[in-house]
Amino acid sequence: MIFRLKPYLTGLVIIIFAQWLLETQTETLRGWFDLLKWSGYGLLVLTLVVSVHFNRPVYAHFMVLVGIQYYLIQNFLQVPLSEPSAQVLYLWLAIWLPLSALLVSVVPAKPIKHWFQALVACVYLAPLLGVIALLDSISVWYSEFLASGAAPDLLFQFWPSDWLVSSVGVVIFYLMCLLIGLTLVRFNKALTLLPLMILLQAVLLMRFHLTFASAVMFLAGMLIVFVYLLQQSWQLVYLDELTGLPGRRAMNETLQGLGRRYTLAMMDVDHFKKFNDTYGHDIGDQVLKMVASRIGEVGGGGKPFRYGGEEFAIVFPGKALGETLVHLETVRTAIENYQMTIRQPDRPEDNVEGKKKRAVKVAESTKVVSVTISIGAAERVQGEKDPNDVLKNADKVLYQAKEAGRNCVCY
Description:
Strand order of the largest sheet: 2-3-1-6-7
Catalytic activity: 2 GTP = 3',3'-c-di-GMP + 2 diphosphate
Order of helices and strands: HHHHHHHHHHHHEHHEEHEHHEEHE
Number of helices: 18
Number of domains: 2
Number of strands: 7
Radius of gyration: 28 Å
Structural class: alpha+beta
EC number: 2.7.7.65
Keywords: Membrane, Transmembrane, Transmembrane helix
Domain GGDEF: 260-411
Enzyme class: transferase
Shape: elongated
């Protein structure tokens, strides 16, 4: 399912497919060009609406950037790049779009309807509008600059070949922007698409000589952002925000699609309320994340879910009860053996002071704790049609595990 794929993987697939279309399907694209062009604009409007609905200002700005660039290419760059005005605009777009994308990625997060977003748009639109207004004058100066011989080949000497149309300077510039984009993503996962948008721009400008390159890449960019927003909406609906596991709604849909043979397991963190009261909810959240990560590694084809609170569930489609017990026991043991280090609230903020204190009194600044889980498992038996009945049986067995002393698997 495409919504479960990693965003960068989806984007790379779309970019590769777009390249294949440009290289091998020129005649097909020629026959569908009008539809292709207007589909891009339609998808642009749709993606903007989705961005506003889910309050994703960065991607709304991305749409504006790519849409403006496509309009300029279609109306100003349908001429040979040997013309000074075309080369000026080409170089300016090559610099303007990635820098603008980096700008909107690092500005403070504000609601999409906040006046600050309009200010950001003015900041990145002003240089472009200025170049468009003064394009003729800049082109004359640019021609004189090239004729003087003072222009460095590194930036201004283009390679019009079957492989790319660009210059050494543009290639180096995009490599730097891509590196910055990847660095930003490392610190902010919300910017996942930034490197992809920069890569898409680089591919477009370096394959500019191919027929319909701008139309195909424009549509590809719209698709990348649109699919990403759909993935985000899917995650909001089906994934638990704290643990990253599928939530109860996803589990209910999975239950409805089960066949005649399956096993369900319910599990609960032992004494979790007491743990929360002792160490606080922040530590409790860390415990839930740890438990979720171990449950997420379950084998045997099990599908893990966060049922709610400190309760989790695993669905084993097509598995009899006996086939699942070893995998449930593995999960229980992994959680029991995990040692979690709790940092005390009075630990120094400064790293240097923290290292000194840890070197002197490690035991006083940290505490190691562990948690356990109880598991109840039930298999669908002949005559049971509703998976919720099997789930209730697993829940009953879970309470038997609690009464049996906890930290065990009952079935």
